[in-house]
Amino acid sequence: MRARDEYGPDGPPTKKRLASPVDGDVGEAARRLRERGFGRPMAAVILGSGLSAFSEGLGERLELPYSDVPGTPAPSIEGHGGALIQGLLGGRRVLVYSGRVHYYEGRSYEDVTWQVRLAAALGAETLVITNAAGGIDPGFEVGDIMLIVDQISTVTGRWRPRVRQTFRMAAAYSPGLVELAGREALANGLRVRRGVYMGSLGPSYETPAEIAFARAAGAHAVGMSTVAEVQTAHLLGLPVLGLSLITNVPLPGRFETTTHAEVLEAGRRGAAAMVSLVAAVLHKL
Ligand code: HPA
User: Measuring CA to CA, which of 78, 192, 227, 252 is 20 to 30 A from 220?
Assistant: First the structure.
Protein backbone atom coordinates (compact mmCIF):
# COMPACT_ATOMS: atom_id res chain seq x y z
CA MET A 1 0.00 0.00 0.00
CA ARG A 2 1.33 3.44 -0.81
CA ALA A 3 2.09 5.83 2.05
CA ARG A 4 -0.57 8.26 0.82
CA ASP A 5 -3.28 5.64 1.18
CA GLU A 6 -2.10 4.62 4.62
CA TYR A 7 -1.80 8.05 6.08
CA GLY A 8 -3.99 10.37 4.06
CA PRO A 9 -3.07 13.19 1.72
CA ASP A 10 -0.23 14.55 3.87
CA GLY A 11 1.81 11.38 3.65
CA PRO A 12 3.40 9.40 6.46
CA PRO A 13 4.13 10.64 9.96
CA THR A 14 7.85 10.83 10.53
CA LYS A 15 8.42 8.00 12.99
CA LYS A 16 11.47 6.89 11.10
CA ARG A 17 13.91 9.14 9.36
CA LEU A 18 12.95 9.92 5.79
CA ALA A 19 15.52 9.97 3.04
CA SER A 20 14.77 13.58 2.28
CA PRO A 21 16.18 15.77 -0.48
CA VAL A 22 17.07 18.34 2.17
CA ASP A 23 19.74 15.96 3.50
CA GLY A 24 22.10 16.28 0.54
CA ASP A 25 24.14 19.44 0.90
CA VAL A 26 25.17 18.97 4.53
CA GLY A 27 27.28 15.92 3.65
CA GLU A 28 30.53 17.85 3.22
CA ALA A 29 30.09 19.63 6.56
CA ALA A 30 29.37 16.30 8.27
CA ARG A 31 32.53 14.79 6.73
CA ARG A 32 34.67 17.72 7.92
CA LEU A 33 33.26 17.42 11.42
CA ARG A 34 33.97 13.68 11.57
CA GLU A 35 37.56 14.35 10.45
CA ARG A 36 37.89 16.80 13.33
CA GLY A 37 36.68 14.32 15.93
CA PHE A 38 32.96 15.06 16.00
CA GLY A 39 30.88 11.88 16.33
CA ARG A 40 27.26 10.85 16.51
CA PRO A 41 25.58 12.99 19.18
CA MET A 42 22.82 11.68 21.40
CA ALA A 43 21.34 15.16 21.12
CA ALA A 44 21.92 18.39 19.23
CA VAL A 45 21.14 21.62 21.05
CA ILE A 46 20.49 24.93 19.30
CA LEU A 47 21.10 27.82 21.64
CA GLY A 48 19.09 31.00 21.38
CA SER A 49 20.06 34.58 22.17
CA GLY A 50 22.22 34.90 25.26
CA LEU A 51 22.16 31.18 26.13
CA SER A 52 25.70 30.26 25.15
CA ALA A 53 26.55 29.47 28.82
CA PHE A 54 25.14 25.96 28.30
CA SER A 55 28.17 24.70 26.40
CA GLU A 56 30.56 25.80 29.15
CA GLY A 57 29.35 22.99 31.41
CA LEU A 58 30.32 20.24 28.96
CA GLY A 59 33.32 17.94 29.38
CA GLU A 60 36.02 17.18 26.77
CA ARG A 61 34.95 20.09 24.62
CA LEU A 62 35.79 20.34 20.95
CA GLU A 63 34.96 23.67 19.37
CA LEU A 64 34.96 24.79 15.74
CA PRO A 65 33.88 28.20 14.50
CA TYR A 66 31.13 27.98 11.90
CA SER A 67 33.58 29.43 9.39
CA ASP A 68 35.59 26.15 9.61
CA VAL A 69 32.60 23.97 8.75
CA PRO A 70 31.93 24.05 4.99
CA GLY A 71 28.68 25.69 4.02
CA THR A 72 27.66 26.60 7.53
CA PRO A 73 25.89 29.96 7.61
CA ALA A 74 27.31 32.28 10.26
CA PRO A 75 25.10 34.57 12.32
CA SER A 76 25.59 38.27 11.90
CA ILE A 77 23.90 39.66 14.99
CA GLU A 78 24.99 40.36 18.54
CA GLY A 79 24.50 37.58 21.07
CA HIS A 80 24.96 34.74 18.59
CA GLY A 81 28.48 33.33 18.90
CA GLY A 82 28.80 31.21 15.81
CA ALA A 83 30.54 28.00 16.94
CA LEU A 84 29.86 24.29 16.85
CA ILE A 85 30.77 22.59 20.09
CA GLN A 86 30.91 18.92 20.91
CA GLY A 87 31.11 17.94 24.55
CA LEU A 88 30.20 15.27 27.03
CA LEU A 89 27.27 15.45 29.36
CA GLY A 90 26.93 12.51 31.73
CA GLY A 91 29.49 10.70 29.57
CA ARG A 92 27.45 11.04 26.38
CA ARG A 93 28.12 13.16 23.34
CA VAL A 94 26.16 16.36 22.79
CA LEU A 95 26.45 18.69 19.82
CA VAL A 96 25.82 22.34 20.55
CA TYR A 97 25.20 25.12 18.08
CA SER A 98 26.12 28.35 19.75
CA GLY A 99 24.35 30.85 17.54
CA ARG A 100 21.83 30.49 14.73
CA VAL A 101 20.78 32.46 11.68
CA HIS A 102 17.38 34.02 11.15
CA TYR A 103 15.20 35.08 8.24
CA TYR A 104 15.56 38.70 9.36
CA GLU A 105 19.27 38.52 8.54
CA GLY A 106 18.20 37.98 4.95
CA ARG A 107 18.87 34.24 5.05
CA SER A 108 17.06 31.56 3.07
CA TYR A 109 15.02 28.66 4.38
CA GLU A 110 17.99 26.42 3.55
CA ASP A 111 20.32 28.50 5.72
CA VAL A 112 17.83 28.74 8.57
CA THR A 113 17.36 24.95 8.62
CA TRP A 114 21.03 24.07 8.03
CA GLN A 115 21.81 23.21 11.65
CA VAL A 116 18.92 20.79 11.87
CA ARG A 117 19.86 19.07 8.63
CA LEU A 118 23.49 18.80 9.73
CA ALA A 119 22.44 17.36 13.10
CA ALA A 120 20.35 14.75 11.30
CA ALA A 121 23.26 13.96 8.96
CA LEU A 122 25.50 13.36 11.98
CA GLY A 123 22.93 10.95 13.38
CA ALA A 124 21.60 13.02 16.28
CA GLU A 125 18.76 11.24 18.04
CA THR A 126 17.07 14.25 19.59
CA LEU A 127 16.99 17.97 18.90
CA VAL A 128 16.69 20.54 21.66
CA ILE A 129 15.81 24.00 20.41
CA THR A 130 16.00 26.97 22.71
CA ASN A 131 14.99 30.51 21.93
CA ALA A 132 14.19 33.86 23.44
CA ALA A 133 10.57 34.85 23.03
CA GLY A 134 8.10 37.53 23.95
CA GLY A 135 5.33 36.44 26.33
CA ILE A 136 1.87 36.77 24.81
CA ASP A 137 0.06 34.98 27.62
CA PRO A 138 -0.79 37.69 30.18
CA GLY A 139 0.15 35.29 32.99
CA PHE A 140 3.75 35.06 31.83
CA GLU A 141 6.61 36.83 33.59
CA VAL A 142 10.05 37.75 32.31
CA GLY A 143 12.34 34.82 33.08
CA ASP A 144 9.66 32.14 32.69
CA ILE A 145 10.54 29.08 30.67
CA MET A 146 7.90 27.83 28.27
CA LEU A 147 7.87 24.22 27.14
CA ILE A 148 6.67 24.49 23.56
CA VAL A 149 3.81 22.12 22.85
CA ASP A 150 2.94 23.36 19.37
CA GLN A 151 3.67 26.16 16.95
CA ILE A 152 2.01 28.60 14.60
CA SER A 153 4.27 28.82 11.58
CA THR A 154 3.70 32.24 10.19
CA VAL A 155 6.75 31.59 8.01
CA THR A 156 5.06 28.64 6.31
CA GLY A 157 5.09 29.03 2.59
CA ARG A 158 8.44 30.80 2.40
CA TRP A 159 10.95 29.80 -0.23
CA ARG A 160 12.11 26.22 0.22
CA PRO A 161 12.86 24.78 -3.19
CA ARG A 162 14.35 21.50 -2.04
CA VAL A 163 11.43 20.31 0.02
CA ARG A 164 9.12 18.71 -2.49
CA GLN A 165 6.66 17.02 -0.23
CA THR A 166 3.90 17.92 2.15
CA PHE A 167 4.04 16.53 5.65
CA ARG A 168 2.10 16.45 8.89
CA MET A 169 3.07 18.48 11.92
CA ALA A 170 1.02 16.84 14.69
CA ALA A 171 3.29 16.09 17.68
CA ALA A 172 6.27 17.81 16.04
CA TYR A 173 7.19 18.82 19.59
CA SER A 174 7.57 15.41 21.19
CA PRO A 175 4.87 14.99 23.89
CA GLY A 176 7.20 12.56 25.67
CA LEU A 177 9.97 15.16 25.82
CA VAL A 178 7.54 17.83 27.05
CA GLU A 179 6.50 15.45 29.85
CA LEU A 180 10.10 14.65 30.71
CA ALA A 181 11.05 18.35 30.77
CA GLY A 182 8.02 19.11 32.98
CA ARG A 183 9.06 16.40 35.45
CA GLU A 184 12.68 17.54 35.48
CA ALA A 185 11.65 21.17 36.01
CA LEU A 186 9.58 20.13 39.02
CA ALA A 187 12.39 17.98 40.40
CA ASN A 188 14.83 20.88 40.06
CA GLY A 189 12.55 23.57 41.48
CA LEU A 190 12.17 25.41 38.16
CA ARG A 191 8.87 26.95 37.16
CA VAL A 192 7.84 26.16 33.61
CA ARG A 193 4.78 26.90 31.53
CA ARG A 194 3.48 25.01 28.54
CA GLY A 195 2.38 26.88 25.47
CA VAL A 196 2.19 27.54 21.77
CA TYR A 197 5.02 29.40 20.03
CA MET A 198 4.23 31.69 17.14
CA GLY A 199 6.98 32.31 14.62
CA SER A 200 7.49 35.81 13.30
CA LEU A 201 9.75 36.71 10.41
CA GLY A 202 11.03 39.77 12.28
CA PRO A 203 13.02 41.91 12.38
CA SER A 204 10.43 44.14 14.02
CA TYR A 205 9.00 43.23 17.39
CA GLU A 206 5.23 43.00 17.39
CA THR A 207 2.93 45.95 17.17
CA PRO A 208 0.07 46.10 19.71
CA ALA A 209 -2.25 44.89 16.95
CA GLU A 210 0.04 41.95 16.21
CA ILE A 211 0.17 41.05 19.90
CA ALA A 212 -3.63 41.07 20.03
CA PHE A 213 -3.65 38.94 16.88
CA ALA A 214 -1.17 36.44 18.36
CA ARG A 215 -3.30 36.11 21.51
CA ALA A 216 -6.48 35.66 19.51
CA ALA A 217 -4.71 33.04 17.39
CA GLY A 218 -3.89 30.99 20.47
CA ALA A 219 -0.18 31.79 20.86
CA HIS A 220 1.43 32.05 24.28
CA ALA A 221 4.77 33.36 23.07
CA VAL A 222 6.21 34.83 19.90
CA GLY A 223 9.73 34.78 18.52
CA MET A 224 11.77 35.10 15.35
CA SER A 225 13.20 31.60 15.01
CA THR A 226 12.44 27.91 15.55
CA VAL A 227 9.36 27.19 13.42
CA ALA A 228 11.19 26.38 10.18
CA GLU A 229 13.79 24.37 12.10
CA VAL A 230 11.07 22.31 13.78
CA GLN A 231 9.31 21.70 10.47
CA THR A 232 12.58 20.37 9.09
CA ALA A 233 13.36 18.27 12.16
CA HIS A 234 9.93 16.70 11.95
CA LEU A 235 10.35 16.04 8.27
CA LEU A 236 13.64 14.31 9.03
CA GLY A 237 12.18 12.27 11.90
CA LEU A 238 14.06 14.03 14.72
CA PRO A 239 12.12 14.31 17.98
CA VAL A 240 12.17 17.91 19.23
CA LEU A 241 12.13 19.52 22.65
CA GLY A 242 11.50 23.27 22.30
CA LEU A 243 12.13 25.70 25.14
CA SER A 244 11.41 29.42 25.12
CA LEU A 245 12.93 31.79 27.62
CA ILE A 246 10.46 34.63 28.06
CA THR A 247 12.57 37.77 27.85
CA ASN A 248 9.79 40.36 27.69
CA VAL A 249 6.04 40.46 28.06
CA PRO A 250 4.95 43.04 25.51
CA LEU A 251 1.32 43.37 26.58
CA PRO A 252 -0.55 46.65 26.71
CA GLY A 253 0.06 48.25 30.09
CA ARG A 254 2.91 45.83 30.87
CA PHE A 255 5.53 47.20 28.58
CA GLU A 256 6.02 49.91 26.01
CA THR A 257 8.85 48.80 23.79
CA THR A 258 11.10 45.81 23.35
CA THR A 259 14.75 46.19 22.45
CA HIS A 260 17.37 43.65 21.47
CA ALA A 261 19.58 44.75 24.40
CA GLU A 262 16.75 44.03 26.82
CA VAL A 263 16.12 40.59 25.31
CA LEU A 264 19.84 39.78 25.67
CA GLU A 265 19.93 41.00 29.26
CA ALA A 266 16.87 38.94 30.24
CA GLY A 267 18.48 36.02 28.40
CA ARG A 268 21.60 36.35 30.52
CA ARG A 269 19.57 36.44 33.72
CA GLY A 270 17.32 33.51 32.76
CA ALA A 271 20.11 31.47 31.21
CA ALA A 272 21.05 29.60 34.39
CA ALA A 273 17.58 28.09 34.79
CA MET A 274 17.38 27.19 31.12
CA VAL A 275 20.84 25.64 31.17
CA SER A 276 20.07 23.49 34.20
CA LEU A 277 16.79 22.33 32.70
CA VAL A 278 18.40 21.35 29.38
CA ALA A 279 21.17 19.49 31.24
CA ALA A 280 18.66 17.72 33.51
CA VAL A 281 16.59 16.57 30.53
CA LEU A 282 19.62 15.36 28.58
CA HIS A 283 20.82 13.37 31.59
CA LYS A 284 17.53 11.47 31.51
CA LEU A 285 17.49 10.68 27.78
N1 HPA B 1 8.89 39.23 19.74
C2 HPA B 1 9.57 38.51 18.84
N3 HPA B 1 10.72 37.92 19.12
C4 HPA B 1 11.22 38.03 20.35
C5 HPA B 1 10.57 38.78 21.35
C6 HPA B 1 9.35 39.42 21.02
O7 HPA B 1 8.69 40.11 21.83
N8 HPA B 1 11.33 38.70 22.48
C9 HPA B 1 12.39 37.92 22.17
N10 HPA B 1 12.34 37.51 20.89
Answer: 78
